[in-house]
Design goal:
This protein has 198 residues and is of the alpha+beta class. The chain contains 2 helices and 9 strands, in the order αβββββββββα. The longest helix has 50 residues. The N terminus and C terminus are likely disordered.
């Protein structure tokens, strides 16, 4: 019996240690758990929503959470660089949210340095109002999200440049053929004149 007790003691200690480690890990992640969000999970907001705000329990000093937004088709939408404001709130500018079910994905570092990524859904409807902007984000200059119009303009310019290059190449080919034909005709005429004169 004494031997069984000696064997049980290490097992109990191991279980207790594992429980403490698990509790510590859970506590570390609990500090960085999402408390509030705008848009909130499952909320209905209007397409004129301009700010995404996430408030956490405690953020690791100097670490800026990553935020990405996807539309109903799963494609990423333009989002400005997140800004951390007092109160462990992260603010990011958005524009042009398409109607349908969208998603917000965020990655935050816990106090122990480990990164955790979570995602939640929200809905955009034309009849709904814009997501409310938390007081912590109001009056702040947030980096603007990249403009899709600028990307489209670059693509349009690229298409124009490609078209101009193709047209230039075609024109060069036509002119080259024309010059070669003129030279051949000139050579034939010169050969015939020599024969007549001779």
């Amino acid at each position: 019996m004494r031997g069984l007790r000696l064997l049980r003691a290490p097992a109990v200690l191991c279980a207790a240690a594992c429980a403490l480690l698990s509790a510590g890990s859970t506590s570390a992640y609990a500090h960085t758990a999402l408390q509030t969000a705008s848009p909130a999970p499952g909320a209905k907001v209007g397409p004129d929503t301009r700010v995404i705000a996430l408030t956490f329990g405690t953020l690791l000093k100097g670490a800026v959470p990553k935020i990405s937004v996807a539309g109903p088709d799963g494609k990423p939408l333009p989002v400005g660089e997140p800004v951390v404001v007092p109160g462990s709130t992260v603010c990011a500018a958005v524009h042009g949210l398409p109607a349908g079910v969208g998603s917000i994905t965020y990655t935050v570092r816990a106090v122990d340095g480990d990164a955790q990524t979570n995602r939640f859904l929200f809905q955009v409807t034309k009849s709904a109002k814009a997501a409310p902007v938390p007081p912590a984000c109001r009056g702040r200059q947030l980096p603007s999200p990249p403009r899709e119009q600028a990307i489209g303009l670059l693509e349009h310019r690229g298409t124009m440049v490609a078209g101009v290059s193709a047209a230039t190449a075609l024109l060069t080919t036509v002119v080259g053929v024309f010059v070669v034909r003129r030279r051949r005709r000139g050579s034939a005429a010169a050969a015939g004149g020599d024969v007549v004169i001779g």
